[in-house]
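Can you please make up a whole protein chain along with its C-alpha coordinates because I've never seen that pairing?
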Amino acid sequence: MSIAIIMPKLGAEMSSGVIKEWIKEQGEWVESDDPVAVIETDKVSYEITAPGSGFLHIMMEVENEADIGENIGMLCADEEELAQLSQQFPTLQEAQTKVELPVQLTENSFVQPIVVNPANESGNLTASSRSEIRITPLARKIAAEHGIDMFSLIGTGIGGRIKQRDVVKWLEKPKEVTPTDQPAISVHSETGGVKTVREVVPMSGTRKVISQRLFGSLQQMAQFSDQGEIDITATVDFRKELVTLQERIGVKITYNAILVKVAALAIKATPLLNSSIVGDEIHIFNEVNVGMAVDGKNGLIVPVVHSADQKSIADIQNELNDLIEHARAGTLLPEQMSGGTMTISNFGSYGAYTGTPIINPPEVILMGLGIIRQIPVVIDDEIKIRWSMSYSLTMDHRVVDGAMGGRYIQRIRDILATPHLLSVLW
Protein backbone atom coordinates (compact mmCIF):
# COMPACT_ATOMS: atom_id res chain seq x y z
CA MET A 1 0.00 0.00 0.00
CA SER A 2 1.32 3.43 -0.94
CA ILE A 3 2.19 6.11 1.65
CA ALA A 4 1.44 9.78 0.97
CA ILE A 5 4.08 12.50 1.35
CA ILE A 6 2.14 15.65 2.21
CA MET A 7 2.96 19.33 2.57
CA PRO A 8 3.47 19.73 6.34
CA LYS A 9 2.20 22.61 8.49
CA LEU A 10 5.30 24.29 9.92
CA GLY A 11 3.71 27.23 11.71
CA ALA A 12 0.41 28.77 12.70
CA GLU A 13 0.58 31.31 9.85
CA MET A 14 1.56 28.82 7.14
CA SER A 15 -1.08 28.00 4.52
CA SER A 16 1.10 26.58 1.73
CA GLY A 17 4.67 25.82 0.75
CA VAL A 18 6.82 25.76 -2.37
CA ILE A 19 8.82 22.67 -3.36
CA LYS A 20 12.42 23.81 -3.83
CA GLU A 21 14.20 20.47 -4.33
CA TRP A 22 13.59 16.76 -4.57
CA ILE A 23 16.52 15.12 -2.81
CA LYS A 24 15.46 11.68 -4.04
CA GLU A 25 14.71 10.93 -7.69
CA GLN A 26 11.54 9.60 -9.32
CA GLY A 27 11.36 5.83 -8.85
CA GLU A 28 14.20 5.71 -6.30
CA TRP A 29 13.85 3.46 -3.25
CA VAL A 30 13.54 5.51 -0.06
CA GLU A 31 13.96 4.33 3.51
CA SER A 32 11.82 5.64 6.36
CA ASP A 33 13.08 8.99 7.75
CA ASP A 34 15.36 9.57 4.75
CA PRO A 35 15.29 13.23 3.59
CA VAL A 36 13.24 13.35 0.39
CA ALA A 37 12.48 16.99 -0.39
CA VAL A 38 13.14 20.60 0.58
CA ILE A 39 10.20 22.98 0.87
CA GLU A 40 10.16 26.71 1.44
CA THR A 41 7.67 29.01 3.11
CA ASP A 42 7.86 32.78 3.47
CA LYS A 43 9.97 32.24 6.58
CA VAL A 44 12.05 29.09 6.30
CA SER A 45 13.45 26.29 4.18
CA TYR A 46 12.65 22.86 5.60
CA GLU A 47 13.74 19.32 4.80
CA ILE A 48 10.91 16.76 4.61
CA THR A 49 11.71 13.21 5.67
CA ALA A 50 10.00 10.08 4.37
CA PRO A 51 7.03 8.90 6.50
CA GLY A 52 7.81 5.32 5.48
CA SER A 53 9.74 3.19 2.99
CA GLY A 54 8.98 2.70 -0.71
CA PHE A 55 9.63 3.67 -4.30
CA LEU A 56 9.21 7.43 -4.73
CA HIS A 57 6.62 8.81 -7.13
CA ILE A 58 6.89 12.60 -7.44
CA MET A 59 3.46 14.18 -7.89
CA MET A 60 4.51 17.81 -7.86
CA GLU A 61 7.65 19.23 -9.44
CA VAL A 62 10.11 21.83 -8.12
CA GLU A 63 8.89 25.45 -7.86
CA ASN A 64 5.26 24.38 -7.57
CA GLU A 65 3.13 25.39 -4.61
CA ALA A 66 1.08 23.02 -2.48
CA ASP A 67 -1.51 23.63 0.22
CA ILE A 68 -0.98 22.21 3.70
CA GLY A 69 -1.94 18.53 3.66
CA GLU A 70 -1.80 18.26 -0.13
CA ASN A 71 -0.03 15.23 -1.60
CA ILE A 72 3.28 16.10 -3.21
CA GLY A 73 4.54 12.54 -3.58
CA MET A 74 3.86 8.88 -2.85
CA LEU A 75 5.93 5.98 -1.57
CA CYS A 76 4.99 2.76 -3.34
CA ALA A 77 5.43 -0.72 -1.87
CA ASP A 78 6.74 -2.22 -5.13
CA GLU A 79 7.59 -1.27 -8.71
CA GLU A 80 4.24 -2.53 -10.00
CA GLU A 81 2.39 -0.13 -7.73
CA LEU A 82 4.81 2.62 -8.80
CA ALA A 83 3.96 2.00 -12.47
CA GLN A 84 0.22 2.10 -11.72
CA LEU A 85 0.51 5.33 -9.75
CA SER A 86 2.64 6.91 -12.47
CA GLN A 87 -0.19 6.31 -14.95
CA GLN A 88 -3.00 7.24 -12.61
CA PHE A 89 -1.34 10.32 -11.05
CA PRO A 90 1.23 11.79 -13.44
CA THR A 91 3.69 14.33 -12.11
CA LEU A 92 2.17 17.79 -11.95
CA GLN A 93 4.33 20.07 -14.06
CA GLU A 94 2.86 23.52 -13.90
CA ALA A 95 3.92 26.13 -16.43
CA GLN A 96 6.46 28.79 -15.59
CA THR A 97 5.07 32.16 -14.55
CA LYS A 98 7.06 34.00 -17.21
CA VAL A 99 4.85 34.58 -20.25
CA GLU A 100 6.02 35.99 -23.58
CA LEU A 101 3.57 38.50 -25.09
CA PRO A 102 2.78 37.97 -28.78
CA VAL A 103 4.09 41.38 -29.82
CA GLN A 104 6.81 43.70 -28.60
CA LEU A 105 5.54 46.28 -26.16
CA THR A 106 6.65 49.87 -26.44
CA GLU A 107 6.67 52.49 -23.75
CA ASN A 108 3.11 53.61 -24.57
CA SER A 109 1.59 50.26 -25.52
CA PHE A 110 -1.82 49.45 -24.08
CA VAL A 111 -2.94 45.99 -22.91
CA GLN A 112 -6.66 45.34 -23.21
CA PRO A 113 -7.96 43.77 -19.98
CA ILE A 114 -9.64 40.36 -20.14
CA VAL A 115 -13.13 39.79 -18.77
CA VAL A 116 -13.52 36.42 -17.07
CA ASN A 117 -16.89 34.78 -16.34
CA PRO A 118 -17.90 34.26 -12.69
CA ALA A 119 -17.72 30.47 -13.05
CA ASN A 120 -16.17 28.03 -15.48
CA GLU A 121 -17.89 25.09 -17.09
CA SER A 122 -16.91 22.72 -14.30
CA GLY A 123 -18.56 24.95 -11.73
CA ASN A 124 -15.37 26.27 -10.13
CA LEU A 125 -16.11 29.62 -8.58
CA THR A 126 -14.23 32.83 -9.29
CA ALA A 127 -13.15 35.09 -6.47
CA SER A 128 -15.86 37.60 -7.40
CA SER A 129 -18.56 35.04 -6.55
CA ARG A 130 -17.26 34.54 -3.05
CA SER A 131 -17.50 36.89 -0.08
CA GLU A 132 -13.76 36.53 0.55
CA ILE A 133 -10.79 36.00 -1.75
CA ARG A 134 -9.11 32.67 -0.98
CA ILE A 135 -5.69 32.64 -2.62
CA THR A 136 -2.33 31.10 -1.79
CA PRO A 137 0.57 33.47 -0.96
CA LEU A 138 2.53 32.52 -4.09
CA ALA A 139 -0.51 33.01 -6.33
CA ARG A 140 -1.21 36.38 -4.72
CA LYS A 141 2.38 37.49 -5.29
CA ILE A 142 2.40 36.45 -8.95
CA ALA A 143 -0.94 38.17 -9.52
CA ALA A 144 0.35 41.37 -7.93
CA GLU A 145 3.55 41.29 -10.00
CA HIS A 146 1.51 41.09 -13.22
CA GLY A 147 -1.18 43.57 -12.14
CA ILE A 148 -3.95 40.96 -12.27
CA ASP A 149 -7.32 41.68 -10.66
CA MET A 150 -7.70 38.74 -8.27
CA PHE A 151 -11.49 38.93 -8.57
CA SER A 152 -11.15 37.82 -12.20
CA LEU A 153 -9.30 34.59 -11.37
CA ILE A 154 -10.87 31.13 -11.34
CA GLY A 155 -9.85 29.10 -8.30
CA THR A 156 -9.37 25.36 -8.83
CA GLY A 157 -7.99 24.51 -5.40
CA ILE A 158 -9.85 23.10 -2.43
CA GLY A 159 -12.95 25.17 -1.75
CA GLY A 160 -12.32 27.30 -4.83
CA ARG A 161 -8.95 28.54 -3.58
CA ILE A 162 -6.86 30.36 -6.20
CA LYS A 163 -3.52 28.62 -6.75
CA GLN A 164 -0.37 29.30 -8.74
CA ARG A 165 -1.62 27.27 -11.70
CA ASP A 166 -4.78 29.40 -11.89
CA VAL A 167 -2.74 32.60 -12.20
CA VAL A 168 -0.47 30.97 -14.79
CA LYS A 169 -3.53 29.88 -16.79
CA TRP A 170 -4.78 33.47 -16.78
CA LEU A 171 -1.41 34.74 -17.92
CA GLU A 172 -1.24 32.25 -20.77
CA LYS A 173 -4.47 33.49 -22.29
CA PRO A 174 -3.86 35.77 -25.30
CA LYS A 175 -4.06 39.48 -24.63
CA GLU A 176 -5.16 42.08 -27.13
CA VAL A 177 -2.32 44.53 -27.59
CA THR A 178 -2.67 47.87 -29.34
CA PRO A 179 0.80 48.99 -30.42
CA THR A 180 1.39 52.70 -31.00
CA ASP A 181 3.60 54.59 -33.37
CA GLN A 182 6.04 55.35 -30.57
CA PRO A 183 9.48 53.77 -31.03
CA ALA A 184 10.43 50.86 -28.79
CA ILE A 185 12.54 51.61 -25.73
CA SER A 186 16.21 51.26 -26.55
CA VAL A 187 19.05 50.13 -24.34
CA HIS A 188 21.19 52.93 -25.81
CA SER A 189 21.57 56.06 -23.71
CA GLU A 190 21.32 59.60 -25.07
CA THR A 191 25.11 59.80 -25.14
CA GLY A 192 25.33 56.71 -27.29
CA GLY A 193 26.49 54.40 -24.49
CA VAL A 194 25.35 50.81 -24.29
CA LYS A 195 24.89 48.64 -21.22
CA THR A 196 25.23 44.91 -21.62
CA VAL A 197 24.09 42.21 -19.23
CA ARG A 198 26.98 40.40 -17.59
CA GLU A 199 24.87 37.83 -15.74
CA VAL A 200 21.22 37.11 -15.05
CA VAL A 201 20.55 35.98 -11.47
CA PRO A 202 17.03 34.67 -10.85
CA MET A 203 15.30 36.33 -7.91
CA SER A 204 14.08 33.23 -6.14
CA GLY A 205 13.89 31.61 -2.74
CA THR A 206 14.62 33.75 0.30
CA ARG A 207 15.62 36.83 -1.72
CA LYS A 208 12.25 36.77 -3.46
CA VAL A 209 10.45 36.52 -0.12
CA ILE A 210 12.47 39.42 1.32
CA SER A 211 11.66 41.52 -1.73
CA GLN A 212 7.96 40.77 -1.47
CA ARG A 213 7.62 41.33 2.28
CA LEU A 214 9.62 44.54 2.56
CA PHE A 215 8.20 46.14 -0.58
CA GLY A 216 4.75 45.29 0.75
CA SER A 217 5.71 46.79 4.11
CA LEU A 218 6.45 50.16 2.52
CA GLN A 219 3.25 50.03 0.46
CA GLN A 220 0.95 49.17 3.35
CA MET A 221 2.34 51.31 6.19
CA ALA A 222 2.84 55.02 6.85
CA GLN A 223 6.45 54.62 7.94
CA PHE A 224 8.56 57.40 9.46
CA SER A 225 11.83 57.39 11.37
CA ASP A 226 13.25 59.16 14.41
CA GLN A 227 17.05 59.33 14.44
CA GLY A 228 19.45 60.42 17.17
CA GLU A 229 22.24 59.54 19.59
CA ILE A 230 22.17 57.86 23.00
CA ASP A 231 24.91 58.24 25.62
CA ILE A 232 25.80 54.66 26.58
CA THR A 233 28.98 55.32 28.57
CA ALA A 234 27.52 53.60 31.65
CA THR A 235 26.44 50.63 29.52
CA VAL A 236 29.92 50.28 27.99
CA ASP A 237 31.40 50.12 31.51
CA PHE A 238 28.67 47.68 32.56
CA ARG A 239 29.38 45.39 29.63
CA LYS A 240 33.14 45.46 30.31
CA GLU A 241 32.43 44.32 33.85
CA LEU A 242 30.22 41.48 32.58
CA VAL A 243 32.97 40.33 30.20
CA THR A 244 35.41 40.05 33.12
CA LEU A 245 32.83 37.80 34.82
CA GLN A 246 32.45 35.56 31.78
CA GLU A 247 33.55 32.39 33.58
CA ARG A 248 31.01 32.92 36.37
CA ILE A 249 28.23 33.92 33.99
CA GLY A 250 29.01 31.08 31.58
CA VAL A 251 28.82 33.12 28.37
CA LYS A 252 30.40 36.26 26.90
CA ILE A 253 27.82 39.04 26.98
CA THR A 254 27.49 41.14 23.83
CA TYR A 255 25.81 44.50 23.30
CA ASN A 256 23.09 42.75 21.29
CA ALA A 257 21.92 40.78 24.33
CA ILE A 258 21.87 43.88 26.52
CA LEU A 259 19.99 45.89 23.91
CA VAL A 260 17.41 43.15 23.32
CA LYS A 261 16.68 43.17 27.05
CA VAL A 262 16.53 46.97 27.23
CA ALA A 263 14.31 47.29 24.14
CA ALA A 264 11.89 44.72 25.58
CA LEU A 265 11.72 46.42 28.98
CA ALA A 266 11.26 49.89 27.48
CA ILE A 267 8.36 48.82 25.28
CA LYS A 268 6.37 47.81 28.37
CA ALA A 269 6.10 51.53 29.22
CA THR A 270 4.56 52.18 25.78
CA PRO A 271 2.49 49.01 25.15
CA LEU A 272 0.86 50.37 21.99
CA LEU A 273 4.22 49.89 20.26
CA ASN A 274 3.95 46.16 20.99
CA SER A 275 1.06 45.64 18.60
CA SER A 276 -0.17 44.88 15.09
CA ILE A 277 -3.05 46.11 12.97
CA VAL A 278 -5.59 43.36 12.30
CA GLY A 279 -8.37 44.58 10.04
CA ASP A 280 -9.80 47.71 11.65
CA GLU A 281 -8.37 46.88 15.07
CA ILE A 282 -5.06 47.33 16.89
CA HIS A 283 -4.09 44.15 18.73
CA ILE A 284 -1.78 44.83 21.69
CA PHE A 285 0.19 41.79 22.80
CA ASN A 286 1.02 40.52 26.27
CA GLU A 287 4.34 38.96 25.26
CA VAL A 288 7.33 41.04 24.16
CA ASN A 289 9.04 38.94 21.48
CA VAL A 290 12.10 40.67 20.03
CA GLY A 291 13.41 39.73 16.60
CA MET A 292 17.08 40.26 15.71
CA ALA A 293 17.86 40.76 12.01
CA VAL A 294 20.69 38.39 11.02
CA ASP A 295 22.62 37.90 7.78
CA GLY A 296 21.68 34.25 7.34
CA LYS A 297 22.81 31.56 4.93
CA ASN A 298 20.31 32.60 2.24
CA GLY A 299 19.91 36.28 3.07
CA LEU A 300 18.28 38.39 5.76
CA ILE A 301 16.47 36.38 8.42
CA VAL A 302 14.87 37.45 11.71
CA PRO A 303 15.04 34.89 14.54
CA VAL A 304 12.97 35.80 17.59
CA VAL A 305 13.75 35.88 21.31
CA HIS A 306 10.38 35.16 22.88
CA SER A 307 9.35 36.87 26.13
CA ALA A 308 12.63 38.79 26.14
CA ASP A 309 11.43 41.05 28.95
CA GLN A 310 11.16 38.02 31.25
CA LYS A 311 14.63 36.61 30.57
CA SER A 312 18.03 37.47 32.03
CA ILE A 313 20.72 38.99 29.84
CA ALA A 314 22.68 35.73 30.12
CA ASP A 315 19.67 33.69 28.97
CA ILE A 316 19.12 36.07 26.07
CA GLN A 317 22.80 35.80 25.09
CA ASN A 318 22.71 32.00 25.08
CA GLU A 319 19.53 32.04 23.01
CA LEU A 320 20.94 34.58 20.55
CA ASN A 321 24.08 32.49 20.09
CA ASP A 322 21.96 29.46 19.26
CA LEU A 323 19.59 31.38 16.96
CA ILE A 324 22.39 33.10 15.04
CA GLU A 325 24.25 29.81 14.58
CA HIS A 326 21.13 28.16 13.13
CA ALA A 327 20.35 31.23 10.99
CA ARG A 328 23.78 31.15 9.36
CA ALA A 329 23.48 27.41 8.81
CA GLY A 330 19.98 27.74 7.38
CA THR A 331 18.50 25.38 9.98
CA LEU A 332 16.15 27.64 11.94
CA LEU A 333 12.79 26.11 12.84
CA PRO A 334 9.56 27.98 12.01
CA GLU A 335 8.78 28.62 15.67
CA GLN A 336 12.18 30.32 16.06
CA MET A 337 11.19 32.92 13.46
CA SER A 338 7.54 33.53 14.28
CA GLY A 339 5.62 35.55 16.82
CA GLY A 340 7.84 38.63 16.81
CA THR A 341 6.30 41.85 18.15
CA MET A 342 9.27 44.15 17.39
CA THR A 343 12.62 43.86 15.60
CA ILE A 344 16.15 45.16 16.13
CA SER A 345 18.53 45.67 13.21
CA ASN A 346 22.15 46.29 14.23
CA PHE A 347 23.64 47.96 11.17
CA GLY A 348 26.36 49.36 13.44
CA SER A 349 28.06 45.97 13.19
CA TYR A 350 29.00 46.98 9.64
CA GLY A 351 30.35 50.37 10.73
CA ALA A 352 27.22 52.35 9.77
CA TYR A 353 26.22 55.38 11.82
CA THR A 354 22.55 55.34 10.89
CA GLY A 355 20.08 54.03 8.36
CA THR A 356 16.40 53.95 7.39
CA PRO A 357 15.26 50.45 8.39
CA ILE A 358 12.00 49.04 7.02
CA ILE A 359 9.48 47.62 9.47
CA ASN A 360 9.11 43.83 9.55
CA PRO A 361 5.33 43.34 9.07
CA PRO A 362 2.97 42.94 10.84
CA GLU A 363 4.95 44.72 13.57
CA VAL A 364 4.67 48.50 13.95
CA ILE A 365 8.22 49.47 14.96
CA LEU A 366 11.80 48.52 14.12
CA MET A 367 14.79 49.73 16.14
CA GLY A 368 17.91 50.28 14.03
CA LEU A 369 21.18 50.55 15.97
CA GLY A 370 24.30 52.28 14.67
CA ILE A 371 27.97 52.03 15.54
CA ILE A 372 29.13 52.54 19.13
CA ARG A 373 31.90 55.13 19.21
CA GLN A 374 33.55 57.79 21.35
CA ILE A 375 32.59 61.40 20.71
CA PRO A 376 33.33 64.77 22.37
CA VAL A 377 30.40 66.09 24.40
CA VAL A 378 29.99 69.39 26.26
CA ILE A 379 29.02 68.72 29.89
CA ASP A 380 28.91 71.63 32.38
CA ASP A 381 30.82 73.83 29.93
CA GLU A 382 33.59 71.25 29.64
CA ILE A 383 34.41 68.91 26.76
CA LYS A 384 34.16 65.29 27.80
CA ILE A 385 34.75 62.08 25.82
CA ARG A 386 31.68 59.85 26.01
CA TRP A 387 30.54 56.58 24.41
CA SER A 388 27.65 57.15 22.04
CA MET A 389 25.35 54.92 19.99
CA SER A 390 23.25 56.23 17.11
CA TYR A 391 19.75 54.87 16.53
CA SER A 392 17.01 55.01 13.93
CA LEU A 393 13.53 54.09 15.14
CA THR A 394 11.10 53.41 12.29
CA MET A 395 7.42 53.50 13.25
CA ASP A 396 4.06 52.95 11.58
CA HIS A 397 2.23 56.27 11.82
CA ARG A 398 -1.12 54.48 11.61
CA VAL A 399 -0.50 53.32 15.18
CA VAL A 400 2.40 55.34 16.56
CA ASP A 401 2.97 59.09 16.65
CA GLY A 402 6.25 60.92 17.22
CA ALA A 403 5.55 61.70 20.87
CA MET A 404 5.02 58.03 21.71
CA GLY A 405 8.19 57.08 19.88
CA GLY A 406 10.02 59.80 21.80
CA ARG A 407 8.82 58.39 25.12
CA TYR A 408 10.04 54.95 24.08
CA ILE A 409 13.51 56.28 23.22
CA GLN A 410 13.63 58.24 26.46
CA ARG A 411 12.86 55.07 28.40
CA ILE A 412 15.75 53.35 26.62
CA ARG A 413 18.03 56.28 27.49
CA ASP A 414 17.07 56.00 31.17
CA ILE A 415 17.78 52.26 31.35
CA LEU A 416 21.09 52.53 29.47
CA ALA A 417 22.17 55.32 31.82
CA THR A 418 21.72 53.02 34.84
CA PRO A 419 22.31 49.49 33.50
CA HIS A 420 23.29 48.07 36.91
CA LEU A 421 19.64 48.38 37.91
CA LEU A 422 18.75 45.73 35.33
CA SER A 423 19.53 43.04 37.87
CA VAL A 424 17.71 44.88 40.67
CA LEU A 425 14.54 46.39 39.24
CA TRP A 426 13.97 44.16 36.22
User: Anything to note?
Assistant: The chain has nine helices and 20 strands. Residues 93-131, 177-186 have pLDDT under 50 and may be disordered.
